[in-house]
C-alpha cells in the first residue's frame, strides 16, 4: 500500500502548576495535568513511524490528557471561576506551530517533504483552551492514522481499517469545534474545516483501500472488487474537492508532494478498478468490452507521469504492467478466437464505486 506520514504539529512547553492537580473520586488517585501535558510534548518530539508499540503508548498519553483538558475546561467555565480562569490562561502562553508546515520523512524514510510550504513556521499563541483541545484532538487523529499504517504492515487488516475509521471520526469531530474568536485562523491549516474534512475523507479512502486489498486476498468476485477500488477513488475525489474549496485559503500553499500522494492514491485504485471490471466482463463473455475497459485504464494511467516518491512510482508501475499484460492477453485471445468488436470509449461501461467504509464517531470524553 501507499504510505504517507503527515507531520505532527509542534508546541512549546506550558506548565499548569499545582492549581489543576485533582483527585479521581473513585480511585482516589491524584492526577497532575502538567505531567500529562509534558508526556504529550515528549510524544510529539519522538519518531514513531511504523512502530506500533510507540504509537499505542502515544495514544494512551494523548487520550489521558484529553480527559484532563475536558475536566479543566468544564471547571474553568463555571461562573464562579471565570475571573481567575481568565488570569490563569493568559499566563499559560499556549503556543502551537502548524505541523502541516513542517518537514516530514517520506514513506521510505530517505527524503524530506512538506504538505504546506510557507516561508516560515511561526508559533501561534492563544488564550483559548479550546485551541489547545483542538490541536490535541488533531494530533490524536494523526496518531490513530499512524496506528492504522503500522497495523497494515503487520497484515492486521481489520484493526487497521478500524483505526482509519476512528481517525476519520476524530477529524470529523474537530471540524465542528467552534473557534469564532480565534485570530489569524487563515494562517493555521489545522484549524480550518476544509483541511480537517479532507483528512477525514483521506482516512476513509485509506481504510477502503485496506478493505479492498483484503477482499482481493479472500478471492472476492471481480465485479465487487472493481466497486471497492473505485470507492477509494471517489473518497479521494471528495478530499480533493474539500482541499480545493473556495473557502480554503491554504490551497495555494499545498505542496506538490502531498497532492501527488493524494492523486497517486486515487489513480492507483482507479487502475485497479478498471482491471477488475475487465476481468468481470471477460468472465461474462464480453471480451470486446473488457479490452476497451483495459485500453481506457492504460490510457488514463499513462497520464500519471510524475511521482514524488520512488516507492509510489514502483507500486503504480507494477499495477500498470499487470493491466497491460492482461490487455495484451485479451487482445490476442480476441484476434485468434472471439473476434468481438471493441466498443468506442463513449460506449464502454463506466466505473462504479461502493464506499463501504464509514467513520466511527468520536465520543467526547467529558
UniProtKB/TrEMBL annotation:
It comes from the Eukaryota. Gene3D superfamilies: alix/aip1 like domains (1.25.40.280). InterPro entries: BRO1_dom, BRO1_sf, BROX. SMART domains: BRO1. Coiled coil: none annotated. It holds the Pfam family BRO1. Residues 4-362 form the BRO1 domain. Belongs to the BROX family. This is BRO1 domain-containing protein. It comes from Brassica carinata (Ethiopian mustard).
Amino acid at each position: 500500500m501507499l504510505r504517507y506520514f503527515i507531520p505532527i504539529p509542534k508546541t512549546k512547553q506550558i506548565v499548569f502548576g499545582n492549581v489543576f492537580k485533582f483527585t479521581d473520586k473513585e480511585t482516589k488517585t491524584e492526577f497532575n495535568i502538567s505531567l500529562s501535558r509534558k508526556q504529550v510534548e515528549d510524544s510529539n518530539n519522538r519518531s514513531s513511524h511504523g512502530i506500533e508499540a510507540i504509537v499505542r503508548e502515544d495514544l494512551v498519553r494523548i487520550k489521558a490528557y484529553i480527559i484532563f483538558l475536558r475536566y479543566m475546561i468544564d471547571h474553568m467555565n463555571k461562573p464562579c471561576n471565570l475571573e481567575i480562569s481568565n488570569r490563569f490562561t493568559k499566563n499559560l502562553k499556549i503556543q502551537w506551530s502548524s505541523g502541516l508546515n513542517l518537514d516530514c520523512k517520506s514513506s521510505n524514510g530517505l527524503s524530506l517533504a512538506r504538505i504546506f510550504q510557507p516561508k516560515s513556521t511561526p508559533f501561534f499563541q492563544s488564550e483559548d483552551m479550546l485551541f489547545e483541545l483542538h490541536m490535541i484532538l488533531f494530533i490524536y487523529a494523526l496518531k490513530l492514522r499512524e496506528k492504522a499504517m503500522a497495523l497494515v504492515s503487520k497484515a492486521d487488516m481489520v484493526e487497521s481499517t478500524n483505526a482509519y475509521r476512528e481517525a476519520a471520526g476524530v477529524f470529523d469531530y474537530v471540524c465542528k469545534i467552534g473557534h469564532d474568536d480565534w485570530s489569524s485562523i487563515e494562517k493555521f491549516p489545522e484549524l480550518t474545516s476544509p483541511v480537517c474534512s479532507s483528512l477525514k475523507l483521506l482516512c476513509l479512502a485509506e481504510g477502503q483501500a485496506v478493505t479492498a486489498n483484503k477482499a482481493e486476498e479472500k478471492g472476492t468476485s471481480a465485479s465487487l472488487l472493481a466497486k471497492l477500488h473505485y470507492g477509494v477513488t471517489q473518497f479521494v475525489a471528495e478530499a480533493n474537492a474539500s482541499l480545493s474549496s473556495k473557502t480554503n485559503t491554504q490551497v495555494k500553499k499545498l505542496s506538490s508532494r502531498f497532492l501527488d500522494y493524494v492523486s497517486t492514491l486515487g489513480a492507483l485504485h482507479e487502475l485497479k478498478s478498471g482491471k477488475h471490471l475487465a476481468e468481470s466482463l471477460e468472465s461474462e463473455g464480453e471480451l470486446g468490452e473488457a479490452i476497451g475497459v483495459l485500453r481506457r485504464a492504460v490510457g488514463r494511467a499513462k497520464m500519471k507521469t510524475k511521482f514524488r516518491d520512488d516507492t509510489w512510482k514502483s507500486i503504480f508501475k507494477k499495477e500498470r504492467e499487470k493491466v497491460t499484460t492482461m490487455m495484451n492477453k485479451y487482445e490476442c485471445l480476441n484476434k485468434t478466437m472471439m473476434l468481438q468488436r471493441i466498443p468506442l470509449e463513449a460506449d464502454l461501461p463506466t466505473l462504479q464505486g461502493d464506499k463501504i467504509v464509514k467513520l466511527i464517531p468520536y465520543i467526547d470524553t467529558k
